[in-house]
């Protein structure tokens, strides 16, 4: 979570703007009593809220996504990027039932699964860039956002399956695309800006437009994360076509409650 309610100020606060670490941070759901602590301050991870296990979310709370379990948790089952992109859900193999007289452990760990674009986005944004995802693939190899370290001194674009985070610029209904501005940095700390064009169906563009206008009153300047097969169309320009709507994350990327 990147937003929570400050008990001290009785208002929604962004984790990256928190200055008083002694404040109490509450769930955005007014019917929920869950409390958070903050992580990622002064580190490579993006500042974010994690819920306290002593004050769990109420049943059915929309902010109880189970995703905070990823942090400092090695017991994670990670789907491949290709499977997440194609929405392939591999069946979970269940161990045969063995009847014993011993009582089960009350705090036995349970597997946490990363098998959706939303799960992948959360994992990538709340862990350091050198965190291994699978085999030798690191988060820096997966996500392209303002933290991403370019593999070369000059960053002119790329091709392949990547999770790109950009900020909205314009939308175009006739040509069926939204345009994002994506920033990355070189290993020398120089900022590179890419124009990221995402082609999608008109109804999905409308959903994003209506959400941003309805929440913020404007379209421009808000994060959208896209898991897509990108191509480097021309210098400093990348593009992809989205066929599966859930490969585009916009509500969760902004992570703010409409109230």
Ordered list of secondary-structure elements with their pairings:
Blueprint: E1 3-6, E2 11-14, E3 25-26, E4 35-39, E5 48-51, E6 76-78, H1 81-86, E7 112-114, H2 117-125, E8 132-134, E9 137-138, H3 139-142, E10 143-144, E11 160-172, E12 177-185, E13 191-199, H4 202-216, E14 223-234, E15 237-241, E16 248-249, H5 251-254
Parallel strand pairs: 6-7, 10-11, 13-15
Antiparallel strand pairs: 1-2, 1-3, 3-4, 4-5, 8-9, 11-12, 11-14, 12-13, 14-15, 14-16
Question: What can you tell me about this protein's structure?
Answer:
With 259 residues, this protein is of the alpha+beta class. It is 15% helix and 32% strand. The protein has helices at residues 81-86, 117-125, 139-142, 202-216, 251-254; strands at residues 3-6, 11-14, 25-26, 35-39, 48-51, 76-78, 112-114, 132-134, 137-138, 143-144, 160-172, 177-185, 191-199, 223-234, 237-241, 248-249. 29% of the residues are buried.
């Amino acid at each position: 979570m990147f937003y929570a309610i400050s008990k001290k100020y009785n208002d929604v606060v962004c984790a990256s703007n928190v200055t008083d670490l002694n404040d109490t941070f509450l769930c955005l759901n007014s019917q929920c009593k869950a409390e958070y602590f903050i992580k990622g301050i002064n580190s490579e991870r993006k500042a974010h809220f994690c819920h306290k296990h002593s004050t769990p979310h109420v049943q059915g709370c929309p902010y109880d996504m189970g995703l905070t379990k990823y942090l400092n948790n090695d017991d994670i089952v990670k789907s491949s990027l290709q499977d997440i992109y194609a929405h392939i859900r591999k069946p979970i193999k269940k161990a045969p039932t063995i009847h014993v007289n011993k009582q089960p452990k009350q705090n036995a760990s349970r597997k946490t699964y990363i098998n959706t674009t939303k799960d992948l986005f959360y994992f990538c944004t709340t862990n350091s860039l050198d965190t291994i995802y699978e085999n030798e693939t690191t988060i820096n190899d997966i996500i392209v956002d303002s933290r991403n370290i370019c593999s070369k001194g000059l960053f002119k674009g790329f091709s392949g399956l990547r999770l790109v985070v950009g900020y909205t610029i314009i939308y175009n209904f006739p040509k069926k695309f939204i345009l994002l501005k994506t920033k990355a940095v070189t290993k020398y700390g120089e900022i590179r800006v890419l124009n990221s064009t995402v082609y999608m169906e008109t109804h999905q563009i409308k959903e994003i437009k209506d959400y941003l206008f309805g929440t913020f009153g404007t379209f421009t300047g808000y994060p959208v994360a896209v898991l897509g097969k990108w191509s480097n169309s021309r210098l400093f320009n990348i593009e992809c076509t989205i066929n599966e709507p859930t490969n585009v994350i916009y509500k969760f990327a902004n992570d703010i409650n409409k109230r």
